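ligand=nicotinamide-adenine-dinucleotide
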Amino acid sequence: MEKICVVGLGYIGLPTSAIFARAGYNVLGVDVSERVIEKLNRGEIHIEEVGLPEIVKQVVNEGKLRASVTPEEADVFIIAVPTPIHEDLTANVDYVISATKAIAPFLKKGNIVIVESTIPPRTMDDVVAPILREQGFDTEKDLYLAHCPERVLPGRILIELVENTRIVGGTTPEAAKQAADVYRKIVTGDVLETEAVTAEMSKLMENTFRDVNIALANELAKISQRLGVDAHKVIELANKHPRVNIHHPGPGVGGHCLAVDPYFIVEKATEEAKLIKLSRDINNSMPHFVTTQVHRLTAELDEPRVAVFGLTYKGNIDDVRESPALEIVEMLLDNKRYDLKVYDPHVQQEQVEFPLSSFEEAVKDAHLVVVLADHNEFKSLNSKELASLMKTPVVFDTKNCTHLDEEQLTVYRIGNLMNLKSIQE
Ligand SMILES: NC(=O)c1ccc[n+]([C@@H]2O[C@H](COP(=O)([O-])OP(=O)(O)OC[C@H]3O[C@@H](n4cnc5c(N)ncnc54)[C@H](O)[C@@H]3O)[C@@H](O)[C@H]2O)c1
């Protein structure tokens, strides 16, 4: 059976290694973190993903999956290292470069090299291939280079790795075919072959599509406030059109995909990517928009007590990376007039630098609750309990997710701020 070397054992590389090992491949997982390697060799994992601990334990016990800090010779190499952005919003492909350099001494003619990390357009042709050419390989003949982006949803990774349609972009048509055949061994969905740059752009455009559409919804929320319209009603009615699907406004866009990937396009085609850049700017402006509404709501209070509900960038997860809620909390903390309490049942104290409160501590005597994440706990908030604990029963729901009784509480939604009145003691 073929041998696969997977470089980078995070949310993508580890499940990928486990799935290939379960399919019978001999898999070596490589990571720069000794901790990750030691754990994996004991059959344990360092990330949370449904169903993964059991599979890893099994394949490690069977000797199908091993881990090391050093690559070894193999038939197929898969790179799944991080690709964040620098402070100046340019892509950081340093991890991809160092992973490519790390596998280079172990490559042989006929090997397949796949990058799964999300990368800027032309990275396979302009960054990865030249490194391997410097090592003496003819990258059109000796090796098969391909980009196969990942589009799994955390929490469903093991299902989606197998069932999702995969796009495999080769630096040559033969490279696309060879790499696609690797995935055909584990994927039940379609495996579509294309060029590397097309695969790179498809992945980026999937996330950009969503970012741009969220920006449109956010712009609608702002316009609605000016014009005195309920944006949520507008969206509901417009979406009755068979070919319209307006997204939902919110406090901004976070996470390490939607808030990052569009910049990879902006960097490479700054002149042309105007809408993409503007959408990023609109989404980045939402934390300021939210805090402005909080200031307006509390303008007439001497010491406003505000409870923030939710810190994660989306509901029912524990991930706060690039979360707009963090920015909102920081802006409110900077403005010294607030007595601010923050509550998120999914976030641990060590994940953030300000104190977290329990539900009761947060709402007790609060003038205002600001909902920033659509956790199930917030969707089912009890109106009576909330109203009885708060000093003034006012809620600003930026996710339009609560189902509160508006007889008992005043509820403002991000797309429905036309009747906003300053809270009175
Ligand atoms: N997590 C997701 O849901 C998701 C979805 C689609 C695409 N992606 C993309 O997949 C890529 C990987 O993301 P992730 O979430 O798995 O990242 P991660 O941070 O969970 O894991 C990356 C791992 O790579 C290791 N690493 C870094 N440099 C290395 C090197 N030079 N050699 C070996 N190991 C190295 C790190 O120690 C870490 O364990 C990124 O480009 C990301 O944008 C992620």
